[in-house]
Amino acid sequence: MKDRRTFLKEASMVGLAGLLPTNTLLAGNLETKRLASEEVSPTSWADGSRLVVSVSMQFEAGGQPVNAESPFPQNMQKGFIDLPGESWYQYGYKEGIPRMLDNWDKLGIKVTSHMVGSAVLKNADLAREIVARGHEAAAHGMDWATQYSMPYETEKKFIRDGAEAIKKVTGFEPVGYNANWLRRGTNTLEILQEMGFKYHIDDLSRDEPFLVKVKGNDFAVVPYTIRCNDIVLIEGKNFSADQFSRQVILEFDQLYKESEKKRRQLSISFHDRIGGTPQMVAATTEIITYIQKHKGLVLNEKTRLPEWLMKIRVL
User: What is the predicted pLDDT for the residue at 151?
Assistant: First the structure.
């Protein structure tokens, strides 16, 4: 089984366009259109897999602005720094990511790490370790700036600076992109394609990868999640770790059932200062161990645009 890094070395985007699934929901001019066919999608992906499971690890801590959102009340007086809030973010790179990296090794999986450029520059050794352990480095902007309101050239520089920080530190050239809180602008996909990116994840509209048209050319979408996302469910104080585990397992069970008749993808997202806590790593182990007991799975497909994607018919 090839990871995305290996696959992308072997396949150009032109080749990829001939590998994406038939009967997939497309987007023309970035707007959703009808299904290409009323036929039921094949049971399996091209490599015989039944269900794709995508796992991401956001590397953001250290790149946040002063007095960024945190579990503490947002009532700091002007001119003062929220020191406990700062320490909450420091946990992400001091404890969270190192603990998750060890757990990924224990579980035998690779993930995609969406990296904020300024966080990478601040914690270069950790960024290098993520890539050295075999995980994909994807771009996540240069910092936490509001991207969607930027003029074209400003946004392009913002994306480029973040990607170049990752490449400079790790040697890995990102081909995937995630905007802050998924809030890309109307120019983002055009900029990404122009810069040589292969896919983005800022889309919640489907439970399988698909293509959109960007200035007449194909661009891949590997859908993200907020349903199985620790920053929404855990840091948002909605769920405990065991409730998070139950939610993801329920999601998996339903998608696994649906995968008898159509291609499905489960996406799970972890953030450095949240998913890397002891309780959440224990919950993650429970989730992944449960998933691994099932047949026909390809784990970690958000870390690649793989050979199991089949030919897509453009409307």
Answer: 97
* Whole-number Cα distances in Å, 65 to 106, 138, 157, 210: 33, 21, 19, 34
The H or E element that residue 135 is part of is: none
- Closest alpha carbon to 278 in 227, 229, 234: 234
Please answer whether residues 141 and 116 qualify as being in contact, where contact means their C-beta atoms are separated by less than 8 angstroms: yes
Tokens 């520089």, located at residue? 157
pLDDT one-digit tens code per residue, 204-223: 999 988 888 999 888 989 89
Distance of CA 7 to the CA centre of its chain: 17
Q: Is the dihedral of CA 115, 118, 122, 125 positive or negative?
A: positive
**3-class secondary-structure state, position 182:** helix
* 3-class DSSP assignment, residue 213: strand
Give me 285's structure tokens.
């182990």
3-state secondary structure of 83: helix
Model confidence, pTM: 0.81
CB 268 within 8 A of CB 55: yes
pLDDT digits (tens, 9 = 90+) for 24-51: 222 222 232 223 333 344 555 666 678 8
